[in-house]
Design goal:
Elements lengths: L10 H10 L3 H15 L6 H8 L3 H13 L3 E4 L4 E4 L2 H12 L1 H17 L2 E8 L3 E8 L14 E3 L3 H10 L4 H8 L10 H14 L2 E4 L6 E11 L2 E11 L1 H4 L2 H20 L3
Antiparallel strand pairs: 1-2, 3-4, 3-8, 4-5, 6-7, 7-8
Helix pairs in contact: 1-2, 2-4, 3-4, 6-11, 7-9
Length: 268
Amino acid sequence: MTEQVHVSRPDRELARQVETSKAPAISRAAAVLRLLGKTEQPLGVQAIARRLGLVPSTCLYVLRALVAEELVSFDPVTKRYALEAGVLTLARHWIRRNRFNDLAEPVLERLSQTFGVMTMGVHIVGLEHIVVVAVSQSGPSIQLSTQIGNRFPALISATGRCIAAFGGHTEEELRARWGGLRWDDPPTYEVWRAQVQETFERGFAVDEGNYISGVTVVAAPVWKSRSKLSHAIAAIGVGNGLKLELPAVQTALLSTARTLSSQLCGEL
């Protein structure tokens, strides 16, 4: 039996970003691309506009521009839009220039095979969100599902505790962002802040079922430069699969994160 855990950003969050953006044209185009990227079937103008809270005529203008840039395709028969191969070119150029991926992928694979869990590396975009940039899955009976390019709220789960502990953000910024998070078993803010402090002292964070019920996540921070937290790596397991190996996973993950940081920006 295979158990899959899917986590996706709600469309209303994309709509909120469009509404509050200081560069609405760019934000609208990005929101359309993200929506099409996570939708299995092509969508028509009305469906896209409705899900993103856009005026249909504005949405059509954005879609036509994206089609012209070969980032979105249009089917004249169904009148629906889908992602075009042009997005792969952009992604491929980014991945080629990203040293973190080259360094992280083999060690994440090794951790995944050693402990029989899923491991992943994420790129941190301030307090906005994190983006999955590397994934390794292991384990014949249980599969946790995530993909490269998936986005999650920055402060959620164990990676969020790392960002709060080492990201240099103010208490006001953290509290404002924390209030909008969605957990299966949410801790109180006071408990979460105590966990953030513990993360700062230990160098890694653990989420035992708070974010997703029955799922344990261990995460450690990675620096690309000495001045800014840039990435994190995480090990994720379901039920007792990770808990049984938790001390060993914590030690291995922290050691791996420190090695990656040293390779990316020199000895810390």
